Structures are given as C-alpha cells and as structure tokens.
C-alpha cells in the first residue's frame, strides 16, 4: 500500500481482486463513520505529501499519485475509479472525496503527513464538488488559447512578387537569321569583341562587325550558329 499502509480487510480484498475490488469497496462510500476533515486540513496534508501538487504524476517514482499521494490499490479500494483511472487524473475535490472514504477505512495513519493537517478521525465534512474532470480542467487553458487564436484577425499575406523574366542573351527573332559563309561559328555567350580578341582580328570588334555587316545587323546582337568572316 505504500503510504496508505494500514490496510483494512476491504482494502486487502480490493488489492487481490484488482478492478473488481472497487465494487467491494463501493458500499463504503455510504459508511456512517464520523471520520472527516475540512478542505483546509486536506490542503495542509497535500502540501506536506506532494508540495500541494494535485496532479502529481509519481515524479518521485514511489508509486503514489495526486495531491494526497494515493497508491493505486488505495485509490481503487476507496472508490476512486469512478472518478478517474488514477488519482492524478482526478480533480482536487474528487481526490478529497476519495480521501474521506480512505480516512473512514484506515484512519489518519494512512498518510505519513497526517500530522500536518492535523488529520483526525472526527473533523468537519469538507465542502467539495466532485463534478467535472481534471483532464478537462487541464485542457481549459489550451482551449482558451486556441479560441483566442481563432478570433484574432488573420494577418494579410504578402503579395507574391512577380516572377523574374528570363533574359536570353541571343534571343532569336521570328524571322530566319542570316547564317553567313565565314569560317567561325558563333557559340552561345560569344560577343564580337570576345571573338575579335580571341582570334587576333586587326581592328577589333569594329573590323569584325564591318566584315560581317551582311549577317550581323546589330553589333550587340549575334546568334549561335552564325558563320563569321575573321578577315
């Protein structure tokens, strides 16, 4: 049982029979014992047991869960399964309701931190509301954030920039290009000045343009495949 170590006969049966044991323990929810404690007392016990963390997920690896550190067998035996599969998945008020049953079953000694309450067998009944679920409460903040995001005005998407136009250095006109009869064939990327320098044409590109003015109509525009005279 761990911390909830004073196991009554009902608790021992629940431990042996597993989930079926919850049915054995269920009638104890209507027990007539005067054992009870106020919410303030349970808060002090929880502060000592789990630093007041009602959603404690067994971070210490001791097999105990929730604010009041229920072992799984104690949670089932005291009827906790009707609220959640484990104490840390139940609300604070639901955990207190199950703790009240366990207090009637085992007395204050079920908690090592009973002294912090102080937890006794004859305190006032707590004012609690066992409706709702811890998982729903835990998701409330996320749901609110999602709703806020939905209500926020959508940012205007930036206009798409027009696609850059492809530049073709030697764009072919619609009309057929004069090919010429020279000995040098123009390649993609050639210029008159580059050809003149590479082949040592006296007079440079101007001379080359003059030699081929029947083929080249614009000194800045020559086409791959044209045949140029070099001299």
From TrEMBL:
The keyword Signal applies. Residues 126-183 are annotated as: Disordered. Gene3D superfamilies: 1.10.530.10, LysM domain (3.10.350.10). Pfam families: LysM (PF01476), Transglycosylas (PF06737). Residues 131-151 have a biased composition (Low complexity). Keywords: Hydrolase, Signal. CDD domains: LysM, RPF. Residues 182-230 form the LysM domain. Residues 1-36 form the signal peptide. SUPFAM superfamilies: LysM domain, Lysozyme-like. Belongs to the transglycosylase family. Rpf subfamily. PANTHER family: PHAGE-LIKE ELEMENT PBSX PROTEIN XKDP (PTHR34700:SF4), POTASSIUM BINDING PROTEIN KBP (PTHR34700). This is Transglycosylase family protein. It comes from Streptomyces silvisoli. The lineage of its organism: Bacteria, Bacillati, Actinomycetota, Actinomycetes, Kitasatosporales.
């Amino acid at each position: 049982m761990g911390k909830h170590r004073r196991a009554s006969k009902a608790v021992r049966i629940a431990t042996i029979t597993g989930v079926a044991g919850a049915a054995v323990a269920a009638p104890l929810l209507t027990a007539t014992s005067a054992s009870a404690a106020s919410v303030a007392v349970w808060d002090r016990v929880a502060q000592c047991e789990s630093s007041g963390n009602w959603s404690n997920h067994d971070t210490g690896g001791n097999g105990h869960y929730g604010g009041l550190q229920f072992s799984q067998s104690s949670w089932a035996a005291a009827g906790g399964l009707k609220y959640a599969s484990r104490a840390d998945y139940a609300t604070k008020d639901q955990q207190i309701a199950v703790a009240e049953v366990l207090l009637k079953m085992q007395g204050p000694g079920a908690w090592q931190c009973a002294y912090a309450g102080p937890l006794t067998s004859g305190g006032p009944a707590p004012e609690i509301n066992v409706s709702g679920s811890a998982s729903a409460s835990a998701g409330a903040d996320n749901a609110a954030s999602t709703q806020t995001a939905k209500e926020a005005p959508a940012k205007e998407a930036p206009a798409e920039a027009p696609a850059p136009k492809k530049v073709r250095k030697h764009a072919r006109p619609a009309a057929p290009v004069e090919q010429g009869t020279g000995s040098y064939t123009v390649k993609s990327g050639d210029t008159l000045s580059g050809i003149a320098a590479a082949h040592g044409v006296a007079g440079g590109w101007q001379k080359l343009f003059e030699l081929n003015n029947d083929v080249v109509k614009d000194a800045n525009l020559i086409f791959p495949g044209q045949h140029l005279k070099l001299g």
